[in-house]
Design goal:
By secondary structure, the protein is α/β, with parallel strands linked by helices. The chain has 19 helices and 32 strands. Strands 1-2-7-13-16-17-18-24 form an eight-stranded parallel β-barrel, surrounded by five helices. Strands 25-26-27-32-29-30 form a six-stranded antiparallel beta sheet. Strands 8, 9, 10, 11 and 12 form a five-stranded antiparallel beta sheet that branches.
């Protein structure tokens, strides 16, 4: 083994994100532009006012025109005419920057859908910077904004990690990595041939903790998979540093082995420099107005005095997010967090941190309501939002995204495991309630009842919105779907749209939702699931505007998913289609500014399948009521609303018809067919 070639080391420095961030920082010093905006407090309602309906794309799944790039497809004029007609105000592209790793001078592919970033530059397989700038321009021409990503918790194994392994300058301070003394190398397992690291077993992690190298096992192992990832720690092979010294390192990775975790409290403050530099690059170079903070809850980890590691609900994550969120607001942007932790964490990390939060609170709960036909758990979770002081207008209420349907229900697993909750006439501790809900959902959503949906390690289920619905309908074989079945799937899909869109905050849906995509047969993506990552089945390719109907596989290597609804272009020609009905719902949402309303009540109901959400409309426009039937039975029920709601006619604002009158006593009788939703407005003489 020899000292690394100086020319190679210099090349790595030129490729590194930390170096790019340091060069970019020089353009801000002594300039006035970062002092023109407030930045200390999160501003969720200002953020959603920019764009309250988002289309979330997934680059690998986009079908392009022949010879075209993903970014060209996303900037297509025909696509934007269709998106604008539906009511889309923002496009979240998903991660676009170069990802994966480096072996010598050779790039290795992404191991997590471009969430293992190694550069600020656009991944050339997705397009060019010119293509992205064109996308930003055409989105703006259709009164929409571009939403981008930063990933503050980890990188890929690119130039920055390779320089850290070589102990180059302060690069080891970027990562949560520890040099193991040579006399302790026998404690570490050998690295298998063809790999550059090996996951450590729990007993080895405990031993290294006892030898005061690392903090030990974390509170949970995300993406746990026997024989693949049994702890959050891996060991490198022997790497010769720039000083000629051979080293073996042990490093932390909350997620996959190729996603080394950043160290947010190293004296170099290298991680802060790199991530804030990435954010400013996204705003100033890529034209983004909103940035997702991915996995932003995992910035702090320490060894507890009483043993074990403190790796969740850590104050350093709050501090780190305040730095990131503040820097983004100073530069004129906003941010949102995709944070699947406790409701406490979502609330606390929003104070000065991200402006908006992905709604992991009610997302599994509304799916539970659909699968069981009962809304009690959903009502419990909607009320928890208010109990923890979270404004529903600060949440992104979403249908499918690129991840699994998470069933971790972390809130009831950690801080609130022993709190008591009233459910179905009984009192349960949080951990028992969690297991009950999970068992119900797993039984109905995967396995024998719905073999086309697959469990995703211990986190949840890989599925599309359409295949959640087919599971709820008891359809076991997707090849047997009839036209009537498809109409029923579409009808229920629109019910889920109404739950998410007819409440304050941001509403988001994906291309998979737009076309009614079904999961891919597992054998089609078996090569991508060797590490147990079953999420690839719900990331099938789609074509929103019939760019090339003959294409069977996207340029990102994803097979085309079966579409129940057809392309967006084709749907908009039919008034009874999913897209046309979606357009109608979103037009009403915009007309009454429901995104800016205030949720004032989640009332008790008698029918188990009924959900009522009461909202105060802005500008003194009265009361709006969202009524949803999650059951397969018709409902007739008299609501008893507070006396402070001014009585008057109750109007269906989507279908423009009077449904009845709210009495002086606050009573109103509602009639709903199976899986029907209504958006109602109480029209008083005072409005």
């Amino acid at each position: 083994m020899t000292t690394p070639d100086k020319e190679y080391v210099n090349w790595l420095v030129e490729q590194s994100m930390l170096n790019a961030a340091r060069q970019r920082a020089k353009t801000y010093g002594g300039q006035g532009r970062l002092w023109q905006r407030p930045f200390a407090q999160a501003r969720p309602r200002d953020a959603s006012a920019i764009a309250s309906v988002w289309f979330t794309a997934y680059p690998a799944s986009i079908i392009t025109r022949e010879g075209g790039s993903v970014l060209e497809a996303l900037g297509d004029e025909e696509l934007w005419r269709a998106l604008s007609e539906v009511g889309i105000q923002g496009i979240h592209n998903g991660p676009l920057k170069l990802s994966g790793g480096l072996q010598g001078y050779n790039r290795t592919p992404s191991i997590d859908g471009n969430f293992d970033r190694i550069s600020f530059g656009i991944d050339p397989e997705l397009g060019s910077e010119t293509h992205l700038l064109n996308l930003s321009r055409i989105a703006a021409a259709h009164n929409a904004v571009v939403i981008d990503d930063i990933i503050p918790s980890h990188t890929g194994k690119g130039a920055d990690f390779r320089l850290a392994e070589m102990a180059y300058e302060d690069y080891p301070g970027l990562y949560h990595m520890v040099e193991i003394r040579e006399e302790d190398w026998p404690l570490l397992p050998a690295v298998p041939e063809g790999r550059d690291a090996v996951n450590l077993l729990p007993d080895v992690v405990d031993l290294l903790r006892d030898k005061h190298y690392i903090v030990g096992q974390l509170q949970r192992v995300i993406f746990f998979e026997p024989g693949v990832k049994e702890t959050d720690w891996s060991a490198t092979d022997i790497v010769v540093g720039v000083d000629g010294k051979p080293r073996r390192w042990v490093y932390l990775h909350y997620f996959k082995e190729g996603q080394p975790s950043l160290n947010w409290l190293d004296p170099s403050f290298a991680a802060q420099q790199m991530i804030i530099g990435d954010a400013l690059h996204a705003i100033d170079v890529m034209g983004a107005r909103v940035l997702r903070l991915d996995a932003n809850g995992f910035l702090g980890v320490e060894r507890k005095i009483e043993g074990g590691a403190w790796s969740e609900s850590h104050p350093l994550s709050i501090t780190g997010n305040q730095l990131i969120g503040g820097a983004i607001r100073k530069a004129g942007g906003f941010s949102f967090q995709e944070l699947n932790l406790t409701i406490d964490d979502i609330a606390s990390m929003s104070h000065g941190g991200a402006d908006l939060s992905y709604d992991f609170i009610t997302r599994p709960a509304y799916q539970h309501a659909l699968l069981t036909g009962t809304t009690e758990f959903l009502r419990l979770m909607l009320r928890q939002v208010h109990a923890f002081g979270i404004d529903p207008a600060s949440l992104i209420h979403a249908l499918q995204n690129h991840d699994e349907l998470t069933l971790e229900l972390v809130h009831f697993w950690t801080l609130h495991a022993h709190d008591t909750y009233h459910y179905q006439g009984q009192t349960f501790p949080g951990n028992i309630l969690r297991e009950h809900i999970r068992e119900e959902m797993y039984e109905r959503l995967a396995g024998e009842h719905a073999p086309y949906n697959l469990k995703f390690v211990t986190n949840g289920v890989s599925c599309t919105t359409a295949s959640i619905i087919t599971a709820a309908l008891g359809i076991r074989d997707l090849d047997t779907l009839t036209e009537e079945d498809i109409r029923q799937v579409q009808h229920i899909h629109l019910l889920l749209v109404m739950f998410n869109a007819m409440q304050p905050g941001v509403f988001a849906l994906s291309g998979w939702d737009m076309v009614g995509a079904l999961p891919l047969p597992a054998e089609q993506v078996e090569h991508l699931m060797q590490d147990g990552d079953t999420r690839w089945i719900h990331r099938g390719a789609y074509d929103l505007v019939d760019s090339d109907p003959t294409v069977a596989v996207s340029s990102g290597g994803m097979p085309r998913a079966r579409s129940l609804y057809g392309s967006l272009s084709e749907q908009l020609q039919r008034p009874d289609s999913f897209a046309s009905q979606l357009k109608k719902i979103l037009a009403v949402r915009r007309a009454y500014d429901i995104a800016a309303s205030r949720q004032v009540l989640i009332p008790d109901v008698e029918h188990p399948g009924l959900l009522i959400m009461v909202h105060e409309l802005p500008a003194g426009r009265g009361t709006q009521i969202t009524a949803l039937n999650f059951s397969n039975q018709p409902i007739t029920e008299t609501l008893h609303l507070p006396a402070d709601i001014v009585p008057g006619p109750v109007v269906d604002i989507i279908n423009e018809r009077v449904e009845g009158d709210l009495s002086e006593q606050g009573e109103f009788t509602i009639n709903l067919d199976a899986y029907e939703g209504l958006a109602l407005r109480v029209v008083s003489n005072l409005v």
